[in-house]
Fold:
Amino acid sequence: MQRYRIRWTKEGRTRFVSARDLTSVWERALRRADLPIAYSEGFTPHAKVSFPDALPVGVSSTGEYAELTFAAPIDPEPDLGALSATLPAGMDVTTYLEVPDGAPKLAKMLRATLWELAWPATDAVELTELLAERCGELQAADRAEVIRHRPDGDRVVDVRPAVLALAPATRPGPDGPDAHTVLRAVLRNDGPTVRPTDLHAALSREDVAPPNAVRRVAQGEHVPDGLREALSGEVEPLVLDVAAEAA
Structure:
């Protein structure tokens, strides 16, 4: 047996693939790539592909993770490249790491998530200033309760324990005038689940529209500058270099 942990993307139309359908998508791709994936035992064997955290439907991501167990050794560079090529457009393997014996579980390496929420190019400076004020108030608070609406009944969620870092910014558009507001947030994974919708509810007070785009950037460990990505060890910055991006 040989195990690999991979980071992969879920963008474009594939962001609408549900967690329930995800396993079958990967099983088909593994068969097309002709890779020796291992299977579970029993009457309904399944490919040994595990996903530590389900992504909400409709949310894009460059920070999805999976662990694959192979029944025979593979050559990771070409073989995982072939797997990436057989996945639907929007799903791409970007990083891989062979799992040594005795390694901690993948979920333990994904202690936090860097999320990015973006709003359209309307009153960007005013919105950024408002969010900066609200973020400061949230981080200074002991509790920040929001109501999460569910079909089985409403539930009160305290957002504050999950918030590790917040950084709103005004990001220039590709043509200069289309500036828009972006909020980068590092949220804790090892506790009650808090999603960007909960964070927005804590910040909005009903006068901030929902973001028009939400993206999971990466997962790993929170560090002062942002988030240390789990597989590569590289730091994903909380505050982007706006000048470099504009250039």
